[in-house]
Amino acid sequence: MIIQPNLIKDCINRDRRAEYALYKTLYSYLMSICYRYTHQKEMAEEMLNMGYLKILTNLSKYDPDLPFKAWVRRIMVNTLIDEYRKNKNLKNNISYVEEYYDTEAYSDTNSALKKLNAKEILQMIEKLPKASGQVFNLFAIDGYSHKEIASMLDISEGTSKWHLNYARQKLKEMIGDTVLTTAKAS
Amino acid sequence: MKNFDNFDESVKNKLDETNFQFSEANWEKMSQMLDASRPAKKPFGNAPLISSIVIGSALLVSSVWYFTTQTSDTKEVAQNINTAVSVNTINNTDANSANTSLTSDNSNTNASSNNSKTRLEVTTTNNSNSSSAVNERDELTGKNETNALVNSSSTKKNVSSKKSNTTPVNEFVTSSKGSSEVNVTKTETSDTGAKVMIGETEGAYVKSETNNSDNNAAKTDVAKTNNNTKGNIKPELGDIAQQQAAGDDRNITSSDPEETDLIALPSATTNLGKTEDAITAANLKTSVEEKKVKEYVRVKHHTVTLEAGASNSFGWKVNNTRNGNNISPILGINYLYNIDSRSSLLVGLQYNSLSNLGEAKANFSITTYGFGVNNDVTTYKLNDLHFAVMPLKFVYKLNKNNALGVGFNMMYLMNTRTEIINTTTLESNVTTSSSRYEYGYGFDQLNRFNGQLALNYNYSISKTLGLNLEVNKSLGNVVKDYKYFGIKNQNSAPAAVKLSLTYTLFNK
User: Fold this and answer.
1) Is the Cβ pair A28, B4 closer than 8 Å?
2) What is the pLDDT of residue B222?
3) Above 80 in pLDDT, residue A20?
4) Is the confidence metric ipTM above 0.90 for this complex?
5) Do A122 and B31 touch (CB under 8 A)?
6) Least CB-CB distance to A106: which of B7, B23, B30?
7) Helix, strand, or coil (residue B504)
8) Number of neighbouring beta carbons within 10 Å of residue B223
9) Residue B134 has what pLDDT?
10) How confident is the model at residue B361 (pLDDT cuts 50, 70, 90)?
11) Between A16, A107, A119, which is nearest B3 by CB?
12) Do B7 and A21 touch (CB under 8 A)?
């Protein structure tokens, strides 16, 4: 993805052609983020537009010294989380669980993961419980800390960690099952 | 923990491979959201265009309204006519001269001169004997009085009485040595310089004098002119006929001048009084005709014309290529306020366009890294610029058919038409291309307002048709930001030649 410097400037100047070009440039990237959080194409598109509007609105505040992609990702994720928080009913569903780390199992999983494609991974994340999926997205994919996640989702850091490990565990199981099924089929 | 990190990284890398096909439909939604969120994107929106149209329309409507409601021509007369009143004075030496009366239809006079600053006083002298001077004075009075000018060969005094056929009033004319005089006092109007304004009558009044050597006759000739007679001053034909039937041998001629720009007057002549021994009608007519008749040009102050033609723009050079050189249609409406017979001010509203902006194109390339590398290039190419033009000019008529104008054309960029070409090259070197046209792009890179200095020559082919040749030069650049198109900023102020036909819708 190549973002021309002039493109950002023109977007700040509200040049619709530039806005269109930037939208097209970012579309796939932002859509993949949105889809990870929403698991529905229509919802993801809606969220993408909301996020893109925020991106354009705040574009004048963008510091060119920072990576544009990371800045865009942060705005998009914040948008998704804001929306998520509006609709969440997490507190009733989440109970604090002690951290659980199964460090042994992941070596094999990492090699198995290479045999899968993005679509299959997305489907697996989609199958995770919603809160766990969000925490996994935020922590593992989008790079937020547990402290930030706790603040964003209005949960404790411990709960965030639990969701993360729960998500990892579930993903590991699903990856194993998928690889096994594929191997059997072949 | 490292295993976890690797796991997370692996998942992340896998997810980065995700490729979502761009959705134009979603962009449409996005575009609507952007529009909705930016009511103030264009602070003035189309306000300049709308206000131009409103002002232009208001100008036209008010002009039409003005013409249709204007019922008096006195304004024109006041401004343009130097009119003389003719008084035919016959000196009668006959002590028994006949009574003389002026038979202007007084019953109609009050209805006249609604707007004029006019008063016509007509005084006739009724001589019953050589020493008497009985005056009859008719007043034709407008709303506003002006100074009365009394022409008389003898004593001049003001008479304050109203009309009366028989009763002598304050002495007006004192005849001397048995002469009787008929005095027609004419009025002078106004600060505008018109000599005579009689009700709604305009025209030249010719003063003539006839010396009647016949002592037995008293004759009064009043030559007067009506252009737009409305029964105010001009003797009614019916009255005249009655007078003739009654044996009154007054000579009466009447004619209405044609309504032309050049109007020669008089139009009506009335000879009153006994004539058998006096001047014959022919003589009287001759006396009138021999007088110098003033001609004047009646200026029609308001002219509205339609204009249609073509403009050839010479464009400007960009990268050794000429841009903005094209022939485009011109369509518009003009309003001329004719200050006088030669000078006019012109304001109008016209449409013009500029094409062939080949170098004004911008490329946006997007490379998508998915399962295959897609290189997507979108090119925005400005094609046409549509302008509303408001000419403001001073026009000077060299003669009847030729006029020169100089002024300024204010230009407002109403809209643009852009060709959007989308070319996608896949990893397999398969290239697909599509193009479409859209309006409204590129305003930020173009000057919305511009101006032109204009010189034009107009030749009147006929009363309603004219040929207009204009040379103009833009004062500002058409393209404000060439850097946007990857070109060094440069002059983009074209010169153009415009040839058009004008059709006069009305001229009043």
Assistant:
1) no
2) 40
3) yes
4) no
5) no
6) B7
7) strand
8) 28
9) 39
10) confident
11) A107
12) no
- Give per-residue pLDDT as tens, B319-337: 778 888 889 999 999 999 9
Output the CA–CA distances (angstroms, integers) from residue B27 to A19, B22, B172, B433, in the order listed: 10, 9, 95, 19
Between CA B379 and CA B473 the distance in angstroms is 31
Residue A152 contacts residue A81 (beta carbons within 8 Å): yes
Is the per-residue pLDDT at B471 higher than 70? Answer: yes
Q: Mean pLDDT, chain A, as a whole number?
A: 80
Contacts of B33 in chain A (CB under 8 A): 49, 53
Q: Which of residues 346-405 of B touch A (CB under 8 A)?
A: 362, 364-370, 376, 378, 380
Q: Which residue of A has its CA nearest to B438?
A: A17
Residue B360: closest CA among B209, B193, B487? B487
Q: Does B292 touch chain A (CB under 8 A)?
A: no
CB contact under 8 A, A24 and B19: no
Chain A CB contacts of B376 under 8 Å are 24
| Per-residue pLDDT, B46 | 62
Residues of B whose CB is below 8 A from A18: 364
What tokens were used for B445? Answer: 């890179």
Token readout for B230 is: 């409305």
User: Which residue type does B164 have?
Assistant: S
What are the start-end ranges of the H helices in A58-156?
68-87, 90-93, 106-113, 118-127, 130-136, 146-153
Closest chain B residue by Cα to residue A169: B4
Identify the H or E element spanning B410.
Answer: strand B402-425
Task: Note whether B41 contacts A116, CB cutoff 8 Å.
Answer: no
* pLDDT tens for each residue of B201-233: 333 343 444 444 444 444 444 434 344 434 444
Chain B, residues 421-480, CB within 8 A of chain A, namely 440-442, 444-445
Q: Which residues does A138 contact at the CB level (< 8 Å), separation at least 6?
A: A77, A81, A144, A148, A149, A152, A153
B412–chain A nearest CA distance, Å: 19
The pLDDT of residue B200 is above 60: no
A32, A56, A110 ranked by CB distance to B15: nearest: A32
Is residue B21 pLDDT above 80, yes or no? Answer: yes
How sure is the predictor about B451, in pLDDT bands with cuts at 50, 70 and 90? very high
Partner A contacted by B29 (CB < 8 A):
yes
Average pLDDT over residues B418-435: 77
State the CB neighbour count (10 A cutoff) for residue A125.
24
Residue B3 forms contact with A (CB below 8 Å): yes
- Contact state of A141 with B12 under an 8 Å Cβ cutoff: yes
Strand B373-397 to B402-425 pairing: antiparallel
pTM above 0.90, yes or no: no
Q: Would you say B115 and B143 are in contact if contact means Cβ atoms under 8 Å apart?
A: yes
- Residue B320 — φ and ψ, nearest 5°? 60, 15
Give, for B453, the enclosing helix (H) or strand (E).
strand B449-460
Amino acid at B44: F
| A99-102 contacts at long range (C-beta below 8 A, 24 or more positions apart) | A99/A158, A99/A161, A99/A162, A99/A165, A100/A162, A100/A165, A100/A166, A100/A169, A101/A165, A101/B4, A102/A169, A102/A172
The Cα of A33 is separated from the nearest Cα of chain B by a number of Å equal to 9
State mean pLDDT over A88-111: 50
Supply the pLDDT for residue B224.
41
The answer to whether B221 touches B247, Cβ cutoff 8 Å, is no
Report the interhelical angle of B24-37 vs A41-57 (nearest 10°).
Answer: 40
